[in-house]
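Schema walk-through. Below, the input block comes first and the output block second. Nothing else is stored per chain. Lengths vary across the set, and this one has 361 residues.
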Amino acid sequence: MSVHLSHLTLSHFRSHQRTRMVFDGRPVAIHGPNGSGKTNILEAISLLSPGRGLRRATPDEMVRRPQALGWKLRAEFATQDGPRLAETWAEPGQSRQVRIDEKSTTQLALGSLAPMLWLTPAMDRLWLEGAEGRRRFLDRTTLSFAPDHAAQVLAYDKAMRERNRLLRDGVRDARWFAALEAQMAEAGARITANRRAALAALADHADPDSPFPMAEMTLDCTAPDDLASALAENRARDMAAGRSLIGPHRADLRAVWTAKGMEAAQCSTGEQKAFLISAILANARALSAQTGTAPILLLDEVAAHLDAARRAALYDAVCAMGAQCFMTGTGPELFAELGLRAQAFAVAEKDGVSQLSEEYP
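--- output ---
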């Protein structure tokens, strides 16, 4: 049985003063005008997984204005072992808190509830902008397969920050550098191995018959096999720059359209979006094969630039893998191909408050 989100309550979260939703495990179509609060629902769900959510917002940015009382999300997951309760909230000016099954815990612990993947309009320019966004996309993908990946990234970043501080301060003590470089090398090797394993899993579960073009994704990595030695040899250059110039933090994700041998950045906007959809579906299939549980998918405005045939293909793929998929769009016609295979909700804004109604069972 797949894990699915069964109940969700948003309290003073962005445009939602109090919104309660009940789900039965089917895909969920949420439609309404721009600015009505659709994406806010998907963002709330994304905060039930490790990290800062699909908008990468700070806790204070998510609070409902003008009250600024703080916000809270409460969710229940249906699992084989019974319901699991997750709560996350933030008081004004405070960091975000997490509680699972009424016990305080860390954000990383949210990863034990349900794997979660998302696609947003902001990601449409993934192949055109800087490498940082592509690394974030890759690490989110990697985290879905390797729950310890976040801890390795944190360990690497912590050691690198300390090394960068020594570089900027002009410290020359080789022993201090060696200790930090050993930590970076250990965590960096695991980060690179995890990333490569994730890309291999995507390739293994890509669908060659899909109407969404496949892209061959590879890791363009600046991390030598012996990273500790390379960092030691590069200290003078790094000191001049005031930062570490080599390592997995400088890696990039390269994508080539398999059928045409064309770099993703040279493809059309529609083709680039199709690559992302193909990658998300491959990721979901790989997770289903690995864990026996389909991930929760969050697809914001995914249907807006797809024709009816591709929309139908996407919906068929989601339903075939049994994934609980939350999708947003401006009108119900974008989800007509789903029919009664999905729950449907309409969202409207009135006097600055999002209001929700379920359209059919």
